[in-house]
Amino acid sequence: MIRRRLLGLALSCLGVCAAARADGALHALWELHGKHNTVYLLGSIHVLRASDYPLAPQVLSAYGKASSILMEINLAQIDAQRVQAELLASARLPEGKTLPGIMGDARYKRAQSLAREVGIDLGIFDAFAPWFAAEAISQLQLQHLGFQPKAGVEMFFLERARADGKPVAGLETVHDQIALFDSLSLEAQADYLVSSLEEAHDLPKEVDAMVHAWAVGDTQWFVEQLQSELGRDPALYESVLVARNRKWVPKIEALLNDDKNYLVIVGTGHLVGQGSVIALLKKDGIAAAQL
After folding, report:
1. 1: closest CA among 189, 227, 218, 249?
2. Sign of CA dihedral 32, 34, 36, 39
3. Domain spans, the chain
4. Around 44, how many Cα atoms within 13 Å sit in the side-chain half-sphere?
5. pLDDT tens per residue, range 169-181
C-alpha cells in the first residue's frame, strides 16, 4: 500500500529512531543540532483532508523557529501548466506502443477488471505508461475520499511561508521526481499497476490507518509497511526512497553549518526504516531526536 503513495501522498525503528517518551506524545518530527542552529525534519503526507487539521503544536512550533523551509521540491517555483505538460509528455507511450500491448492480454484483462471494480475505465490510459495509470488512479481514489494536494502538509507550510516572508527551497526538481517511475522497466511498471489495483479496495481503511500513524508519530507502523514493500520490490524501494535519501543527506548536513534554523519537509517514508535519512545521518555521526 505504501509504495503506491510514495510520490503522490501520501515511515522499534530498526535502531535509528529515539525511544518514545513516557507520555507517548511523539510526532513525525525530528530535530538535529548544529553548533549554532537546529534543523527540524518533518515527515509529510503529501495529500490530506481538511479534517486532518490542525497540526500538532510541536510541529507548528518547529515552523515558527525556522528561518527557512526546504521541501522535496520547491512548490513556490512550480508552473502548473509546464509541469503538467512535462508529466504527460513523459508518461505518453512511444508511437506504436499501447498499455494493453505492454501488459499482455491476460494481465491487462486482470487490471481492467480490477479498475472497473473501483469505477475506473482503464481504457482511458491506453496511450500512457503503466506507472502513470497507477498514480492517476490512486489520485482519483484519494480525491474521492476527500484527500487533496492543496490540503497536504507542504501546501499548508508553503502558504504560511509566503505570508511570513520565509524563503522556500527544494532538495530536488519536478523532473527528478517524474524520472523516478519513468526509469523503471515497462515490465516492472506493469506489475506495479496490477498490484496497485489489487490493493484499491482496501484504500479507505489503509489511508485512515496511515494518517493516524503519522499524526501520533507511530514510526513502527510505517516501518512494517516499508519492510513488506522492500521484500516485494527492492528495486522500487531503492530508487524511490533510498537513492534519493543518499542525495539529500549531504544537503541536510550542510544546513547544520549555518546559524539559522531550518524546517525540512519530506515524505514520512524517507525518515524511518532501512536506508532512511535518519539512518544515514546516524551513520555519519549525527543524532536525530524524535519530538
Report:
1. 227
2. negative
3. 2-290
4. 27
5. 999 988 888 888 7
